[in-house]
Specification:
With 286 residues, the protein is of the alpha+beta class. The chain has six helices and 14 strands.
Length: 286
Amino acid sequence: MNSTYEREFSPSFPQQTVVDCLAENTPFSKQQLKRFMQQGSVWLQSEKQPKPVRVRRAKKLLSSNDKVFFYHNPAVLSTEITPPTLIADEQSFSIWYKPKGVLCQGSKWGDHTTINRWIETHYQFNGQTRNAIIVHRLDKATDGLIIIAHHKQTAKQLTQAFEARQLNKTYQATVIGHFKNNCTFNDDLEGKTAITHAEFLSYDAGKNQSVLSINIETGRKHQIRIHLSQAGFPIVGDRLYGLPQDPSIKTTLPDLQLTATQLSLCLNQQNYHFKLDCSLQHEIKF
């Protein structure tokens, strides 16, 4: 079946398994359904868990009042991502290079293209799998360094470090125009404080493009992209906030030229600094 649809099912009898319930009500084989469950497109609502959660265990037994939700989107389920690269393993957390196109948050249609789910299902640390918890996010179109926590307590500590501004992120961006002076943007975004520091690195007169180093004190959605666009220096390849394209000129926009290049943090009285390795520089097309 190639159509997109969403369905809600109830078990035919108590103690029916999730996969049997799905097989009874959909045209898919059990093997296909098990794969869809691992990809995160099946959800379960129960008396103990009134808010639906993803269910991945095919043989989980259902109660009479349980509800199974199935979200089928062939485009989502068939999507494959460029594998992330481990940069540093600090046991309780790790640093990864997130390629462009890799998500930090799934949807009801699936979560197999998120970096944390990929780590849990595809990567082994010395032969062992680990839980992977998102601490901060990078846009789908942005690549670069990202922190993944492996314990809930570590995730809490890292989140607190973000809130206390003890965790610093540096980005590199290529923008349209001659960006001559270092400056700070502090225009609120959606009613919330947003602070972006931009430092000029170089200018290519032939392309009329500047390379900038960016530091942010806050982490609002699309903060860097919006601030630079509002200042008249949209990021090259920005399809949301960049310059409108002339429909008569059929050109392909480059990827968004925004990369998280450095991370610094303090955790348990220990300082850490991570920089994007030279071996990954080919991923960045400035």
